[in-house]
């Protein structure tokens, strides 16, 4: 039986994880780069969405070879 990961981060938890401010997280959510869900007046980020965003960012990272 497959299980789904339904865990959710708060905005503050994602700020700590990404090492950035709340305004950056809200911009990412507003632009659609970081998926989020609204529960009443609260905004939450699925753990999977945060992981996917970080994976995309790591894939776009440029590596510079030391000469």
TrEMBL record:
Domain of life, source organism: Bacteria
Pfam family, one: HTH_17
GO molecular-function terms, A-Z: DNA binding
Annotated Helix-turn-helix domain residues: 8-57
Full protein name: DNA binding domain-containing protein, excisionase family
Origin species: Micromonospora inyonensis
